[in-house]
Design brief:
single chain; about 220 residues; Rossmann fold; 2 domains; globular; binds 6-O-phosphono-beta-D-glucopyranose; binds magnesium ion
């Protein structure tokens, strides 16, 4: 199969545990404004999905309909709560193994990019002081099609000048894994095999990853 020349990373839930803060803020919105609870299982459907689309999915879960104006207001409230939760983020919140793996990739000449649906991605990357690792950063401000559409990773590949089949994507969201598959890229799920079984490989976190393991995908497929 194709040689892996570039790695594209999702941010929330792959590089740093912001997925838990998104969940906290959505759960609070469900509890305080929408009158229902949001379970962790339901939350899986929101991972990787844009802010407005996430709210639409939640409204559907609760059987609710809101005006566009009200939806904008609630999405803004959720974002304020979320920003409050991430305001003191520091490099020690980077998941174990992340910088070690990024260093190894750099050393081996693998190109590195970031593809996150979040409009807060740049703020987080800066707070974590890992900006210099990424040759390209595609965030929620730069995409029109949400995951599972492959746009976000295809744009990343294009900016790196690497063909999609030579890219590997790291994702904690079902929609993100599907986005990689739809883009004809290698997919590495970060999390549970029960949730991310569609991926070419599933790991618990980047601490389990190495250049050697990455290259094993080329042989297996
Ligand atoms: C994704 C998260 O990375 O970004 C989603 O997995 C989140 O949970 C989405 O809703 C949009 O983030 P933001 O910061 O623009 O609201
Ligand atoms: Mg994610």
């Amino acid at each position: 199969m194709s040689e892996i020349k570039a790695c594209l990373f999702d941010l929330d839930g792959v590089i740093v545990d912001t997925a838990k803060y998104h969940y906290k803020a959505w759960k609070r919105l469900a509890n305080e404004k929408l009158g229902f609870d949001l379970t962790e299982e339901q939350n899986e459907q929101l991972k990787g999905i844009s802010r407005m689309k996430s709210l639409d999915i939640m409204l559907e879960m609760g059987g609710l309909t809101l005006s566009d104006e009200k939806k904008k207001e609630y999405a803004a409230i959720k974002n304020e709560w979320y920003k409050e939760l991430i305001k003191d983020m520091s490099p020690d919140e980077i998941f174990p193994g992340v910088t070690g793996f990024l260093d190894e990739l750099k050393e081996k000449g693998i190109r590195i990019g970031l593809g996150s649906a979040s409009k807060n991605a740049m703020t987080i990357i800066k707070a974590l002081k890992i900006e210099e690792y990424f040759e390209t950063i595609i965030d929620g401000h730069k995409v029109t099609q949400p995951k599972p559409h492959p746009e976000i990773f295809l744009n990343g590949a294009k900016e790196l000048g690497v063909s999609p089949e030579n890219c590997a994507v790291f994702e904690d969201a079902v929609s993100g894994v599907q986005s990689a598959i739809n883009g004809n890229m290698y997919s590495i799920g970060v999390g549970s095999p029960d949730v991310l079984g569609e991926a070419d490989m599933v790991i618990a976190g980047l601490h389990e990853m190495s250049f050697e393991k990455l290259k094993s995908l080329e042989r297996e497929m």
